[in-house]
Design goal:
The structure holds 2 protein chains of 2 kinds. Chain A is mostly helical. Chain A has helices at residues 2-10, 18-42, 59-93, 95-100. In chain A, 74% of the residues lie in helices and 0% in strands. Chain B contains 35 helices and 7 strands. The chains are: A mainly alpha, B mainly alpha.
Chain lengths: 102, 893
């Protein structure tokens, strides 16, 4: 098992190890999150309102929607916070691993 | 029923409680026991100063007027916090690594530490903060008026109450914000007090909300039905306002001085952002959760003319729940006071650092040290600026008439402060952003904001009504609320759109067209690539002997005796020799800064040391010095390289010379042994035959004659060898004097051929190409003839053909006369060809009796004459080529 492993390390790989690959994707997710939030917040602008005649969205539904989106954003952000903390803690534990992934 | 007096007592009690909490927190922090004071929770709660009286009162009013529009003010910050990985993380990192003290400091620091820019941002922040302060005044005044209406004693007048509220808040802010000058300026006390206020206002609003939903409406479902059947029961949102306000609140959340203060300056651990990223949006959500229910119930219960901004107070009051109303009042009071405290702190830091201190320090240049005067100046600057800011707020309130909705006032402030956004974001993410760009953008945005929003918002007080309606000088396209003739846009959206877009365009264009100074470019690189550069805050890099200046400054602030004690201790720590000034090492400067910050605050201490030492980060001078040094190093190393190359060359030459010397020495040994051998052979036969003639008595006459002839021949040979040797040594030593004359090659050859053939057996036939020999020469003709004779006689002696023929041909090759002597013999064997020009080199046996010096002499002569003689292989026989420079011939013609 060790021999191919060392081989991998010797050759500068085009691809990252699984661990840091996850971390990069997590950062991508963190960057996409506000875009998702903005999209969710902008969505009600497409709803029909009073001027559109019949079928305006009732306020209670709007409240539920807005606060649900808000809650989802908070939840994802919370999960990301935990994930970021775990990953950064692991990174501190294995400083050597970080060097290989550069 | 709560009377005004009770209310005032409660307020005072609450303020005393806040002071107590702040004091206790400071004590705890000083004792090192307040770890929880630095927890992410406190950080998150301190961020809640975003929620001011606007949130507490205005959100409900806004909801009652425009439905869910109020929520945009909280969705914007939510997006910013949720996207902390993108923006806030960088902002906080930059703030920490550059030790910025305010948003003005950040902007000025990014654009080459320009104080002009800092002053601009400070003015913008103060002016932009004015409506916001007015908002707090208005909300507190309104809440007082509610209780006053219910108060039978009726000693309440609105005009004077605003004044007293403003004065009270100013006093409170001065006491609270400038109280903290003797602690290490991590504002633990203030931050903890703010966190407490955050809890109070959240609890108050939640309490009112729960009371409204479960006590008045009777549950969630009934509440929802009630909402749907209310006047705001349908989704009815202006799309442009919705997007504009979301964006605006996000921008203001970053740019507001007080938000910057708690978010960046007071941050002492970056990882707190991770918690705040979800906890602060959660706080905002909870603050907004019951806004619509309160608004709906208020619209339901209260009479038609009631001010919806005060539903949070009036609804519990109308239900007879005085204690809840009191709690609600305290919540609103908390919101206003926490905002005022932190805003005052942030703005007064900016004013004292960027306006007052630079002026004062330049005015005090070289004056005697008076202990404690800087401290007084800082305190005075802060107090005066707080009072001035409050006064501005008061005047704004008076100007605007106090009748506007709270939310609309807040939005005016937001739009003003958001003008910093292009410069801030551009500075963080675009290295090409320049100081000129930032100045241009800020000026355009600030001007447009004042013209299109602030002045019209203040009514006819500062801007004539005719200008608002018809534009200045009747130019319709410049009407403040319909720029370029575009009408029908909401005034708020109109102003934000024009000011921010023109601000951004101005910023970008001016940045593209201008050229940044070196310091700007350096700072730009450090800001934009902050994650590549620094992790920890940078230390001081004082290097020059500024200890005396530091000493004078410290005496002014701390007083003479404490300052001298501090410096003595530091000197002792450094080199064990008290009585001398300590070196300004980074460690010493850091301790000094901490010491000073105890008296004047971290920001001012930092600025003051920065002014003496010259900056904490790398200055351009440092960079230039570094560049200069490296250039010198480069030059030095190239010099070294050159020298080493020269040494290598010399060594090679020495080696070559050594080899040559060795060769010459070997040649000399060879030569000596050859010479002795050459001399000995004839001497031996001379001695032998002369002994025979001496000792033998019966020699016949014939024998006698034969022996004498041998002796004579050998002596001749000896003489010839000695002559040749002498000739050669003269030639080699260069002492020969050439007898240069003119003559044709043909005549020289004629003479040489006839004299060489004269002594021979006549068998050698010499062939010549006579026409080509008509060349005039300017050279030593006798020596040249000697060479010719030598070559011809060599052919005579050594050519082993049956009918020996010597061909002499002359050519003109590349500017040289070339004369070839080629015979038809077997030639010289290849292994001997390289040796023929050496002394005593003889090919084959000694059959012709030559000394082997002839060709060596020929070569020496030819080289003296500026030409050469070489062996010409591949001619079928022995071939020699003489070459003479044509210059001689041309010179002769």
């Amino acid at each position: 098992m060790t021999a191919p492993d060392q081989d991998e390390r010797r050759r500068p790989s085009l691809f990252l190890e699984r661990q840091s690959y996850r971390r990069r994707r997590l950062m991508d997710a963190a960057r996409l999150l506000p875009l998702l939030g903005a999209a969710m917040i902008a969505l009600p602008l497409l709803w029909p309102d009073e001027s559109g005649g019949a079928g305006a969205v009732p306020m209670s539904a709007a409240i539920v929607y807005i606060f649900a989106c808000w809650g989802i954003l908070i939840l994802i952000s919370l999960l990301f916070g935990f994930a970021a903390r775990r990953l950064s803690a692991r990174e501190k534990d294995e400083p050597e691993a970080g060097k290989w992934q550069r | 029923m709560a009377t005004l007096n009770v209310l005032i007592l409660v307020c005072l009690g609450y303020v005393v409680l806040l002071f107590g909490v702040a004091f206790a927190a400071d004590r705890l922090a000083a004792a090192g026991r307040g770890r929880w004071l630095r927890s992410p929770l406190i950080y998150t709660l301190s961020l809640s100063i975003y929620c001011t009286a606007w949130t507490f009162y205005g959100a409900v009013g806004n909801a009652a007027r425009s439905g869910l529009e109020f929520v945009t003010i909280y969705l914007g910050p939510t997006l910013v916090m949720v996207g902390w990985w993108w923006g806030l993380r960088k902002l906080v990192r930059v703030g920490r690594s550059q030790r910025v003290t305010s948003i003005a400091d950040l902007i000025s620091s990014r654009y080459g530490k320009s104080n002009t820019l800092a002053i601009c941002v400070t003015i913008l922040a103060v002016v932009g903060g004015t409506p916001y302060i007015a908002l707090q005044l208005q909300s507190i005044t309104l809440s007082f008026s509610i209780f006053a209406e219910a108060d039978p004693t009726g000693l309440y007048r609105e005009g004077s109450s605003v004044f007293w509220v403003a004065t009270g808040l100013a006093l409170f802010a001065i006491l609270f914000g400038t109280r903290n000058l003797d602690a290490n300026e991590r504002h633990h006390g203030v931050v903890t007090a703010i966190a407490l206020e955050a809890v109070v206002k959240l609890v108050a609003l939640l309490a009112v909300g729960i009371f409204v939903v479960w006590t008045i409406a009777g549950g969630i479902e009934q509440m929802m039905d009630r909402i749907d059947s209310s006047p705001i029961g349908q989704w009815n949102i202006d799309a442009s306002r919705w997007t504009t306000f979301t964006f605006l609140s996000a921008a203001a959340f970053i740019c507001l001085p007080r938000m910057f203060q708690v978010m960046v300056v007071e941050n002492d651990d970056e990882s707190h952002l991770r918690t705040a990223a979800w906890a602060f949006p959660l706080y905002l959500l909870l603050m907004s959760l019951f806004v619509v229910p309160i608004a709906v119930v208020g619209l339901d219960l209260m009479p038609a003319g009631a001010n919806p901004d005060l539903f949070v107070l009036t609804v519990p009051l109308s239900q007879g729940n005085d204690w809840l109303a009191m709690l609600s009042f305290i919540g609103g009071f908390s919101s206003a006071t926490s905002m005022v405290i932190v805003t005052a702190m942030a703005l007064s830091t900016m004013v004292s650092n960027h306006v007052v201190m630079p002026i004062w320090l330049s005015a005090q240049e070289g004056s005697a040290s008076v202990s404690g005067d800087v401290r007084t100046i800082v305190l005075m600057a802060r107090r005066v600026s707080i009072a001035a800011i409050m006064a501005l707020g008061y005047f704004y309130y008076r100007m605007s008439g106090g009748g506007a909705a709270l939310a609309s006032i807040g939005l005016v402030a937001f739009a003003g402060i958001s003008q910093i956004l292009p410069a801030l974001v551009g500075g963080l993410f675009w290295r090409g952003a320049t100081r000129t760009g930032a100045l241009v953008g800020l000026s355009i945005g600030f001007g447009l904001w004042i013209y299109t929003l602030l002045l019209p918002g203040m009514g006819g007080g500062l801007i004539p009504v005719s200008v608002i309606e018809n534009g200045p000088f009747g130019w319709g396209f410049l009407r403040p609320q319909a720029l370029f003739g575009i009408e029908g846009i909401d005034p708020m959206v109109h102003s934000v759109m024009w000011s921010l877009s023109l601000n951004t365009i101005g910023f970008c264009v001016a940045s593209l067209l201008s050229f940044p100074s070196p310091l700007e470019r350096l700072q730009g690189a450090q800001f934009v690539n902050v994650f590549d550069h620094s992790v920890a805050p940078q230390g001081w890099t004082g290097s020059v002997a500024q200890s005396e200046d530091l000493m004078i400054m410290t005496q002014r602030i701390l007083g003479t005796v404490p300052a001298q004690e501090f410096f003595q201790a530091e000197a002792e720590r450094q080199n064990g020799r008290p009585g001398r000034l300590p070196e300004p090492t980074p460690g010493f400067l850091q301790r000094l800064e901490r010491e000073l910050s105890g008296s004047v605050g971290a920001a001012t201490a930092h600025a003051m040391i920065g002014q003496i030492v010259g900056g904490s980060s790398v200055s351009v001078e440092d960079l230039l010095a570094v560049a200069d040094e490296s250039a010198q190093l480069l030059e030095y190393s190239s010099q070294l390289e050159e020298k080493s190359a020269e040494l290598t060359r010399t060594a090679r030459k020495l080696r070559e010379a050594n080899t040559k010397l060795t060769q010459v020495s070997a040649q000399k040994d060879d030569f000596l042994s050859q010479v002795s051998h050459e001399l000995r052979t004839p001497m031996t036969s001379i001695r032998a035959f002369s002994e025979i003639m001496r000792d033998a008595d019966d020699l016949s006459a014939d024998d006698q004659i034969r022996y004498a002839a041998i002796i004579h021949d050998e002596a001749l040979r000896l003489t010839r060898v000695l002559d040749d040797l002498l000739d050669l040594s003269v030639l080699e030593s260069g002492q020969v004097s050439l007898n240069v004359g003119d003559g044709s090659l043909k005549s020289v050859l004629d003479r040489a051929v006839s004299s060489a053939l004269a002594g021979g057996d006549g068998s050698l036939i010499v062939r010549r190409v006579r026409p080509s020999e008509r060349i005039q020469l300017h050279t030593d003709l006798d020596r040249l003839g000697q060479v010719f004779i030598n070559l011809i006689s060599n052919a005579q002696k050594y050519c082993d053909a049956l009918e020996p023929v010597l061909t002499i041909s002359t050519h003109d090759v590349g500017g040289q006369v070339v004369i070839d002597f080629v015979d038809n013999g077997s030639g010289i064997p290849p292994e001997a060809q390289s040796m023929v020009f050496e002394k005593f080199a003889r090919v084959g046996s000694d059959k012709a009796g030559g000394a082997g010096l002839g060709l060596a002499i020929c070569r020496e002569i030819m080289q003296r004459l500026g030409g050469d003689i070489t062996y010409l292989p591949g001619q079928g026989g022995a071939g020699f080529r003489l070459s003479l420079p044509l210059a001689y011939r041309q010179a002769a013609q």
